[in-house]
Design goal:
The chain is an alpha+beta fold and 356 residues long. It is built from nine helices and 16 strands. The chain has four domains: 2-90, LysM domain (Membrane-bound Lytic Murein Transglycosylase D, Chain A); 105-175, Membrane-bound Lytic Murein Transglycosylase D, Chain A, CATH 3.10.350; 186-256, Membrane-bound Lytic Murein Transglycosylase D, Chain A (Roll), CATH 3.10.350; 269-353, no CATH class. It has a two-stranded antiparallel ribbon. Helix 2 packs across helix 3 and helix 4 (138-144) packs across helix 5. It starts with a helix and ends with a strand.
């Protein structure tokens, strides 16, 4: 009864807040919080400003002084209160004094109107731009604009491995006198398929679909975005039993001749007493009422797993017996990221459990 009363009180608060923010906070928020907040977290007693800022890709100073002025440089957090971690859905605010909704822009000597803010060191003869959203990889930006990762790096001073590309800025994806149609080097093998290069050593010869592996891409990320299993990825790319032999900055095989790449997982599963099919292997000590799973690849952090599944690190620890600081989470196993009788609000990263 107490839990129901608390929930009704929270719902009443949401209604009272109306459209004060772009997305309503899940619990009470300080009135000084920026009005264009579009993403919130609920503070716990163990949270720090540095940890919250790092997990959400913002600076500590922005979190403490710009997004949440009530926090201040002393990092004054109240457990259970909502704090803003994203403004305007990640789109930089318009700095132009015009009432137009178009982004602020400047016109350079080449006569091209350039939106701002831009990538530092961008070439001066750019004539086509793209906004890099949070989470975009170099390969994603290049692919959607029909250019190569090398071109993206070259036109934006992004370094030889594209690690210096900024987020939440406009980058150059086309230059004067150059077609932006991808000029990736390719070869045609005996199966008649044009294969881009460089490729993963030991890749199968009957591959008909490829994906570029950017630095930082995990095997699970590559498999998911191409609708295949990690077992497929390993098998088609000679990537070792645990996918640790997959190279970065090469093209890998994500589809073969005669095989659909629509995900038809062959992961071993078991059905427990709750009627949910559970993939294996799983995290030791995982709760028995789990109904949603995620594969923890080598290099995945607890915050990364929690973020991509719209849950808190506290939930991840609780549901997987991962220790007080999440150091007991295993790699290369399936972990629990959702339980029966839970309702998730992905827009606010909040989970309510009835009866608690």
């Amino acid at each position: 009864m107490k839990a129901l009363t608390q929930l009704l009180a929270q719902l009443g608060l949401f209604a009272a807040l109306g459209s004060a923010y772009l997305q309503d906070p899940p619990t009470s928020a300080d009135p000084s919080t920026v009005s264009d907040c579009s993403w919130w977290i609920i503070a716990t007693s163990t949270d720090t400003c540095a940890a919250i800022a790092g997990a959400n890709g913002i600076s500590v100073s922005d979190f403490e002084l710009v997004y949440n002025p009530s926090v201040g440089t002393e990092c004054t957090l109240n457990a259970g209160q909502s704090y803003c971690v994203e403004r305007n859905y990640g789109v930089p605010p318009v700095t132009s004094t015009s009432t137009s909704s178009a982004p602020a822009s400047t016109t350079t000597g080449n006569g091209i109107t350039t939106p701002t803010p831009t990538q530092p060191g961008m070439v001066s003869n750019c004539n086509k731009f793209d906004f890099v959203a949070t989470g975009d990889s170099c390969s994603t930006v290049a692919a959607r604009n029909g250019i190569t990762v090398d071109q993206l790096s070259e036109w934006n001073s992004a370094g030889p491995d594209c690690t210096a590309l900024w987020g939440k800025v406009y980058v150059c994806v086309g230059v004067i006198g150059t077609s932006t149609t991808s000029t990736t080097t390719s070869t045609t093998t005996g199966n008649g398929i044009s294969t881009p290069t460089p490729t993963q050593p030991g890749m199968v010869s009957n591959c008909n679909k490829f994906d570029y592996v950017n630095k930082g891409d995990s095997c699970s990320v590559i498999a998911t975005r191409n609708g295949i299993t990690i077992a497929n990825l390993i098998d088609w790319n000679n990537a070792g039993t645990d996918c640790t032999s997959l190279w970065a900055e090469v093209y890998v095989c994500v589809g073969v001749v005669g095989t659909s790449t629509t995900l038809s997982t062959s992961t071993t599963t078991t059905t427990t007493g709750n009627g949910v099919s559970t993939p294996t292997p799983t995290q030791p000590g995982m709760v028995p009422n789990c109904n949603k799973f995620d594969f923890a690849n080598k290099g995945d952090s607890c915050s990364a797993i929690a973020s991509r599944n719209g849950i808190s690190v506290t939930d991840l620890i609780l549901w997987n017996d991962a220790g007080t600081d999440c150091t007991s989470i295993w790699a290369l196993v399936y972990v629990c990221v959702g339980v029966i009788s839970s309702v998730f609000r992905n827009s606010t990263q909040v989970k309510y459990q009835w009866g608690k």
